[in-house]
């Protein structure tokens, strides 16, 4: 498997796009790409990184405890399962 097989495209509204490794959290991928996103706990407790999921599917590495709506995700504790389109608070 090549390294590009392990990457998924993440379109970020009003920012651009990044390629995210399938085994890294979205927060880690955004940080590596230099995208500033609010966060505090990195484990789904606080909800500071709450982000709108417009298209795609994620899987949580740990069950989030922070309240999120059906159209929201917590990038600190999820990985992309399919290409995504998200909107982060800027």
UniProtKB/TrEMBL annotation:
CDD domains in the record: fer2 (cd00207)
Q: Which positions fall inside the 2Fe-2S ferredoxin-type domain?
A: 8-90
InterPro entries with a match to the protein in the record: 2Fe-2S_ferredoxin-like_sf, 2Fe-2S_ferredoxin-type, 2Fe2S_fd_BS, Beta-grasp_dom_sf
Gene Ontology MF terms in the entry: 2 iron, 2 sulfur cluster binding
Which key words are in the record?
Ubiquinone
Q: Which superkingdom is the protein from? A: Bacteria
Protein name stated in the entry: 2Fe-2S ferredoxin-like protein
Protein source organism: Alteromonas hispanica
User: Organism classification, top ranks?
Assistant: Bacteria, Pseudomonadati, Pseudomonadota, Gammaproteobacteria, Alteromonadales
């Amino acid at each position: 498997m090549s390294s590009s097989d392990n990457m998924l495209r993440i379109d970020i509204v009003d920012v651009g796009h990044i390629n995210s490794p399938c085994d890294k959290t979205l927060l880690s991928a955004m940080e590596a790409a230099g995208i500033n996103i609010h966060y505090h706990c990195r484990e789904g407790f606080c909800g500071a990184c709450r982000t709108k999921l417009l298209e795609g599917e994620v899987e949580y590495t740990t069950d989030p405890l922070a309240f999120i709506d059906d159209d929201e995700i917590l990038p600190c504790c999820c990985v992309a399962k399919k290409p995504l389109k998200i909107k982060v608070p800027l």
